[in-house]
Amino acid sequence: MDLTSFDMNLLPPILHELDLSSNRLEDISSSDESATIQLEVFNISHNQLTHLNDCHISCPDLRVFRCHHNSFSRLPTRLLDASTNQLESIDASYNIIAHTFDLCRHKSLKKLNMKMNRLTTMPLIPNSLLVLDVTENRIKDIGQLHSVSDAAPLALIELMLSGNQLSEIDGSTFEKYSNLQLLDISCNKLRNLPYQLGLLPNLRAFRVASNPLFTLKRSDVESNPDEVLAVLRRRAPKREEALHSQPSSILSAFISNGNSIVLSVSHNRGQWLSLVPPQLAACPRLVHLDLSKNQFSDLSPLVGDLLWAGTIKLLDLGGNCFTEVPMEVLAQLKCLKTLNLMSNSIKSLKRCTTWLPVSLVCLELSENQIEDMEDLVWSLALSCRNIQVLRIAQNKLKKIPLELGLFLEGKLSKLNLQMNPQQAVRHAVLERGCADQLAYLKNRMTKEEVLESRKRLVALHGELLSEKQSVSHSNSLGKDAAENREIAVCSNADTTNQGASNQSLNSPERLASLRLIAECKERIVGVQHEIDTNFALSQAKRYAMKKEIAMGRSFMIKEERKLGLRK
User: Fold this and answer.
1) Do residues 428 and 518 both lie within one domain?
2) pTM, two decimal places
3) What is the pLDDT of residues 175-193, one digit of tens each?
4) Which controlled-vocabulary keywords does the entry list (predicted)?
5) Does residue 513 sit in the same domain as residue 382?
6) Rounded to an integer, what distance in angstroms lies between the CA atom of residue 328 and that of residue 261?
7) CA distance 16 to 13
């Protein structure tokens, strides 16, 4: 049929189901409410209806109402209000409904489909609702879905919010959605996700693709939502009912065992510690200490004489509440190789040279709140020549220093800088291997910037030596033995300085300049060898390399003149 209008008065009063779908209806009229008194299913979908204001219909037994694919600007509240106790399903998708509405009185409502409308706010729903679909609307805020006076948990098991304009989600909103099994928030403008989503106990399907979530791994966001939920769970705060007592009896037994070299106080068998046991300082011959998954915020009880300061190789402080790096304790650990500070709340990495052990090989700083890593990069290059693993993912880095590319010439083999809000380096680059990332960063530096960075590094090295010597000349001989041996190599490499005084030869500034000259010479030789042996080089590349050699020689001449090695 191709009906354009329909008179409800023509219907028998005993009718239970009425299907007027797929016509060309523009108007439905009724003057007698008793004509549809027993109607349970009413389908007027796929028509050209804009309203039912002139239709006096009363359907107290109505269970299913379908009006999708029309041009309604509002829901027909007069029709729906007559069936508050029986209505179970409403499908009003593919209309132009923009006005919000309150369905909290419909205590039997199970399904509401408002897909492809013009809603800007969420409808108020009853606690009985199981499925809510508001896909492809203009919603900017989830807000309050249920009545404020109703404190009962929602029965909602499916919530579809894809294709809206959500920029943030209030985590407290989802604390009552313990029954939620499907959540679709894809194709929005979300930059961050609340940890409460990861704590939903029954969530089976989670869709979050096509959101600018810079704090999460892009490949996980697009195709591995389970890993996204796992990350959110790790970000959840620790339980407040943490254990505050000291495990003195366990530690006393440990200390009495002189052969013990590994100690784990991780998680404390399901209860978190908030205070560091001071007995830890007296543990002898300790090599591996695991203090992860507690509520430690500082290590002040350990400041002082540590019996294991010279033996500890691995220290795990991950999953705690540190807001600052425990510098006083770390500064004592001269043999530490692996340091884990993952999943804390550290914001700053200043004064890194005061606490970074020179023996460090692996540094884990992921899942913190670090905004700047420039001081860390220079300190690692200056003090930690053997660093091989650096992870600082899932922080708040606004910039990745290009100087990190200089580690391409070092031992660094594993690097993770992903899931930071910085914009300068594409996320596709950060998903590559360590060598590719370092090469990318270095290639973005000009030749002048590379030379200037190396010069600054040598100057910082000289300043560090000078500072240590000014504190205690006798102690610096033991602490800086490695540096002094390297300096001796640099000073012996240049034999033209025989007439200089012994004090001049040993000054940090002069030795730093000599080291810089030696590095420059080595670089020039390497570039010249590449030009002479690599016949596949393009003309432009050869020209650039020859220019680099000329600039290096000019720089070397200036430095030699400053030292009196050249007239």
Assistant:
1) no
2) 0.50
3) 888 889 999 999 999 988 9
4) Leucine-rich repeat, Repeat
5) no
6) 22
7) 9
